[in-house]
């Protein structure tokens, strides 16, 4: 299974800045990317076209979206459909990112609708799950992950191609805080996610990627990526500069 290094640029960068950063990243990384590694850039919608263009033809480099609306088209002012993203060159999309759950109010049910619809539409999906600090302190890690994961894949066909569905474990308390989860915490959460994926999808659950996200930086990436059941990383802040992200990708 290839390891996936995903850059979530959130609401940063204009179209031209994003295209330049993607081209710079490609320049820094191509030729040195270890076999079995893939790089994914998730810019804002407005920057998808230049990022896809900068990555065009580069093997193992992909563009993706941070969000979409689970309908083909229609009267949904301000929203973007999966088909529109595919048309711009996005092959992947996130669902259930903690900022969409906790800042923008997405429910487990909405995340489940998006995950199933995105897959059905032809996108590969990275479903994000993770506990808040009060939930962790209350001993609810396993319950939160199980609830979010089962709801997130509730309508996903059990024979989905495992390469098209990944889960990102992102403890909310580690996102954008500089506070990275320790190896024991990551191992425990990823083992829980793996057990759930196998329970739901059978043997295919062993082939689905589980990414870690939360304050991944150039100086902690190699330790994290080497852990059991860590099949990649989802990086926010440290992915904004091509130089920093290239050091994570090459770690
Ligand atoms: C994220 O946005 O998914 C994320 C993990 O952010 P950061 O790396 O900044 O913690």
Could you describe the 3D structure shown?
- With 251 residues, this protein is of the alpha/beta class.
- The chain has one domain (3-249): Aldolase class I (TIM Barrel, Alpha-Beta Barrel).
- The protein is 39% helix and 17% strand.
- It contains ten helices and eight strands.
- An eight-stranded parallel beta barrel has the order 1-2-3-4-5-6-7-8, surrounded by six helices.
- Helix 5 packs across helix 7.
- The chain starts with a strand and ends with a helix.
- Bound molecules: phosphoenolpyruvate (PEP).
- The site of phosphoenolpyruvate has 13 residues, from strand 8.
Provide tags for this entry.
alpha/beta; 10 helices; globular; binds phosphoenolpyruvate
Oligomer: single chain
How many β-strand runs? Answer: 8
Which H/E pattern describes the elements? EHEHEHEHHEHHEHEHEH
At CATH's second level, what is the architecture? Answer: Alpha-Beta Barrel
Shape: globular
